[in-house]
């Protein structure tokens, strides 16, 4: 999709610090990290949010989650714990309308979230 930031990253047109590359998903570092490890995992194809992807392509949703876990293992936070978050819509402060799974770890993340 034109004018989509994360489509631009998936296409290699916009720079990002890549962490893992899979056939249909991609993991890269968040530009404004909220924890020592803060990675975003996206589908290469454009889907607006978690619900859209889950209904359109459950196989890619499964790959997205496996990529998130593998990125956490690679970062060394799988053992100490990590949080995976989909923000969907205005109240959740979704700012990029291309499905992305936040993977946060490396500190005590607290609960409940804000
Ligand atoms: P959300 O608020 O859930 O839509 O999350 C969007 C995330 O994208 C935020 O955590 C931003 O810091 C991050 N972000 C925005 N632009 C970039 C970029 N060019 N590269 C990496 N992360 C980005």
What's the short version?
By secondary structure, the chain is of the alpha+beta class.
Overall description:
The chain is built from three helices and five strands. It has a single domain (5-105), classed as 2-Layer Sandwich (HIT family, subunit A). The chain has a five-stranded antiparallel sheet with strand order 1-2-3-5-4, covered by helices on one side. Helix content is 28%, strand content 23%. Helix 2 packs across helix 3. With 114 residues, it is an alpha+beta fold. Adenosine monophosphate is lined by residues 5, 16, 30-32, 40, 87, 93-96.
Distance between the termini: 32 Å
Look at the structure and name the CATH superfamily: HIT-like
CATH topology: HIT family, subunit A
Strand share of the residues?
15-25%
Structural class: alpha+beta
In angstroms, what is the radius of gyration?
A: 13 Å
Instruction: Output the CATH class name.
Output: Alpha Beta
The profile of the biggest β sheet is: 5 strands, antiparallel
Strand arrangement within the widest β-sheet reads 1-2-3-5-4
Q: Which ligands does the model contain, each kind named once?
A: adenosine monophosphate
């Amino acid at each position: 999709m034109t004018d989509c930031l994360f489509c631009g990253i998936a296409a290699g047109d916009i720079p990002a610090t890549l962490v893992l590359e899979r056939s249909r998903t991609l993991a890269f570092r968040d530009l404004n990290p909220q924890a020592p490890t803060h990675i975003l995992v996206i589908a290469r194809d454009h889907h607006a949010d978690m619900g859209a992807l889950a209904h359109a392509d459950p196989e890619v949703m499964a790959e997205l989650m496996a990529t998130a876990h593998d990125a956490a293992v690679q970062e060394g936070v799988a053992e100490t714990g990590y949080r995976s978050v989909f923000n969907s819509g205005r109240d959740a402060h979704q700012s990029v309308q291309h499905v992305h799974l936040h993977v946060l770890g490396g500190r005590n993340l607290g609960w409940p979230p804000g």
